Q: What sequence folds into this?
């Protein structure tokens, strides 16, 4: 990082503090001092910082603050302890032994476990496959997948519900014709066994495009000659993928995985419109539970604890991501 | 070689069908009378009807016509304002060397990962206290502030790729910082600004959560908020809902058709670079 203040050369024109605020913008560069540099920066940054502090940072601090209290006063980490004992959040007794609800946190966890490898991997594979052939089917496939990332998630949720509807939906109708039993041949979003699965599948359908687009862009930066050299050495297509494509795309894959993780963690719209977390909480997620807690049950303390929890999960990834982008 | 191509092509065909079918289903359902699609949109007969669109547009509790107007206002405001503010910030962070710049960049970077839930409740109270609850202005401000960190990051990255020589030339000609920014940097930033605006516009348009918590006056609700309301309490009218979904998708669809290049560039620049 070349932003380290200590590494900067000392200003040459120190002591020019007579400059008024309106004047600072046309100070000649060569006479700038450190202090003036700072004031000038303030001029450029102030409006934006004001907005960010007012509507992002201050509310976040308030949320952390709220999460440490309950209706009786200071609670320390009690809210968080309560969350982990709350069946709406974590229900280890049912987890994997019975059908959902398993609690919002575990639903997010399962969601990530399934969705992350599938959508990232599928996007990678499709990007590679589509780069190899020319066919107008590729155009259609790319277009349809791409459409998923520009689709408002609220519409995405409607489409998921539609896809798995008992009467109008394709999935249950096809499975029913194949002789599948009840939850599978009925409205998926109405049964606890299938509701979460329907949402996860739908979210893969919506999000694979992100991975595909970024991986496609990454592919176009790989030097063709590497493949030609490999072909001369007799490397199979699979070996080329394994030893050239995959390692060279690794930075892209990591970024895609990080962004996907953050996306899954805060998933809200799809669930809100398709199932409302139901039936009986079987497809509830943290973000939705936070919304219910804050705006339906009017319990800002619990809601703040949930929000802080989501942030605690996202921050390490966010830190890694920010460091990576600042290091360049 | 032959076998490889056939495999790749069949993957493309399968993927094209699976990914396109849900969209085709929505279009088919929206364009046909409700009784035809009750038991699946793939069954004949096929008759064209715009009743669903009219119904969604003038729905008694969730008229999309008004929603569209509100969405346009919010999306335009929450695109122009943060883009201008962020380009100033990006110049400050990209070119000026001041103490605290590193930590400040880090802080802004961390904000990129913040979930909206983290600001929801206090923001609601703050907007209430400021009298901005239930107002499009409030929503525009919230969206602007929320979008600023990523736009600043994006634009700062872009500014650092610009040659410093141009600014030095401007300096020799006697231009100050603000002038240098306005006449040298800002015009050079236009391609990046296009990407930023397309992406931010689409995101604000698509957003549901901030609107949900800040707007509840039926006349002021944006498009995405009205979609869940189109769904009946007991009975789902798929024709109406599909038409609503298509109206809401109108803008992302236009972006998809005409501005794909900028959108993808923005995604790539925002994520990979």
A:
């Amino acid at each position: 990082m070349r932003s380290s203040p200590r590494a900067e050369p000392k200003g040459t024109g120190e002591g020019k503090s007579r400059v008024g605020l309106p004047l600072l913008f046309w100070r000649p560069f060569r006479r700038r001092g450190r202090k003036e540099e700072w004031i000038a920066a303030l001029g450029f940054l102030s409006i934006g910082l004001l907005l960010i502090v007012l509507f992002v940072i201050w509310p976040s601090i308030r949320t952390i603050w709220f999460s440490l209290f309950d209706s009786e006063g200071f609670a320390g980490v009690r809210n968080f302890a309560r969350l982990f004992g709350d069946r709406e959040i974590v229900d280890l007794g049912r987890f994997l032994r019975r059908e959902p609800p398993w609690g919002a946190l575990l639903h997010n966890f399962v969601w990530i476990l399934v969705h992350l490898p599938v959508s990232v991997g599928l996007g990678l594979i499709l990007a590679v496959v589509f780069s190899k052939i020319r066919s107008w089917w590729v155009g259609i496939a790319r277009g349809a997948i791409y459409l998923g990332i520009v689709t408002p998630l609220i519409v995405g949720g409607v489409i998921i519900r539609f896809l798995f509807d008992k009467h109008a939906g394709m999935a249950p109708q096809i499975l029913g014709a194949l002789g599948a039993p009840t939850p599978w041949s009925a409205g998926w979003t109405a049964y606890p066994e299938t509701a979460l699965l329907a949402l996860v599948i739908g979210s893969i359908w919506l999000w694979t495009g992100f991975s595909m687009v970024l991986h496609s862009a990454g592919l176009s930066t790989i030097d063709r000659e590497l493949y030609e050299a490999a072909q001369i050495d007799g490397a199979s297509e699979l070996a080329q993928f394994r030893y050239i494509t995959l390692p060279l795309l690794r930075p892209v894959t990591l970024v895609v995985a990080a962004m996907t993780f953050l996306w899954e963690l805060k998933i809200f719209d799809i669930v809100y419109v398709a199932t409302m977390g139901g039936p009986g909480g079987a497809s509830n997620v943290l973000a939705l539970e936070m919304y219910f807690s804050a705006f339906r049950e009017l319990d800002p303390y619990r809601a703040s604890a949930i929000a802080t929890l989501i942030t605690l999960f996202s921050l390490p990834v966010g830190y890694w991501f920010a460091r990576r982008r600042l290091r360049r | 070689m032959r076998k490889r191509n056939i495999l790749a092509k069949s993957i493309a065909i399968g993927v094209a069908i699976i990914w396109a079918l849900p969209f085709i289903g929505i279009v088919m359902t929206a364009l046909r009378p409700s009784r035809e699609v009750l038991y699946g949109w793939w069954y004949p007969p096929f008759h064209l009807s715009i009743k669903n669109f009219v119904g969604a547009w003038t729905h008694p509790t969730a008229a999309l016509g008004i929603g569209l107007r509100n969405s346009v206002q919010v999306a335009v405001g929450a695109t122009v304002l943060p883009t201008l503010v962020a380009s100033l910030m990006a110049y400050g962070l990209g070119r000026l060397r001041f103490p605290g710049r590193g930590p400040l960049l880090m802080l802004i970077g961390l904000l990129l990962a913040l979930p909206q839930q983290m600001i929801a409740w206090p923001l609601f109270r703050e907007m209430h206290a400021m009298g901005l609850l239930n107002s499009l202005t409030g929503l525009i401000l919230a969206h602007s502030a929320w979008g600023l960190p990523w736009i600043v990051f994006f634009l700062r990255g872009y500014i650092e790729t610009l040659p410093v020589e141009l600014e030095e030339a401007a300096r020799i000609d006697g231009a100050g910082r603000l002038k240098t920014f306005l006449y040298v940097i800002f015009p050079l930033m236009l391609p990046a600004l296009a990407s930023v605006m397309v992406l931010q516009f689409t995101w604000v348009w698509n957003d549901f959560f901030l609107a949900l918590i800040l707007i509840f006056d039926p006349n002021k609700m944006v498009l995405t908020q009205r979609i869940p309301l189109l769904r009946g309490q007991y009975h789902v009218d798929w024709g109406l809902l599909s038409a609503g979904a298509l109206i809401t998708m109108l803008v992302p669809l236009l972006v998809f058709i005409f501005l794909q290049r900028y959108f993808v560039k923005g995604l790539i620049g925002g994520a990979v670079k």
Notes: Confidence is low (pLDDT under 50) at residues 1-31 of chain A. Chain A touches chain B through 112 residues (CB under 8 Å). The radius of gyration of chain A is 26 Å.
